[in-house]
Amino acid sequence: MREASILFLRTCLTLLAMPIYLLSFLGIWEPFCKKVFFPYVLERIAGFHEKKSKKQKQDLFRNLPDFASPSGELRLLEIGTGCGPNFQFYPPGCRVTCTDINPNFQRGLSKNMSKNQHIHYEQFLVSAGEDLSQVPSGSVDAVVCTLVLCSVQSVNDTLKEVLRVLRPGGAFYFLEHVAGDHSSWTYFWQQICYPTWKLVFAGCCLNRETWKNLEQAKFSELSLQHITIALPGTPIQPHIIGFAVK
To answer: Which positions, given as ranges, span the membrane (predicted)?
Structure first.
């Protein structure tokens, strides 16, 4: 009965979003989404999410200075920087390399860079999380990834790249929305929204159990919590937060 309800409601949602499916079929939606729609929407979603998650992020990034190199310098790589909502939480003087698969976030990114002059911006690399070949192995003290592992092609390959670029003893910080408990209403609605949500929001997957990937990755230490961030009317309230040490 539950599966039939999911299928019926998923079909209804698909019909409502039929214009987008048609644009996708014609090859129009993806470039429009990448260049115009997603950067515009993400900047606003990031602002909304930021208000709801600010306390959690402050707590998460509080120990970032502990992972500075012996010289005292903190070299940080952010995967999927987007418009840069995390800059405000980085310690003064840290050297940040920004990466994103989508180069169309310049307006929001420039705005956040100008607001956060306490950090040094090294470079912006157009690259996917699964391919950080422009970053030398063992060259960074910390990697940050927030609301990105939901949309990478491969979570496992991304975590392998994280481990490669981190120096021994470096840390990976994450905050990601994940699948809800399978018996919950949240998961029910995630199942309904999944195909349309993924199409509209540039490959974002609602039902990834990313904590399992982190548990199976070869980190020496993993500090992970399941939390709920109050985002009313959305299927992305369950999150995981924490850091892992190489």
So the answer is: 7-29
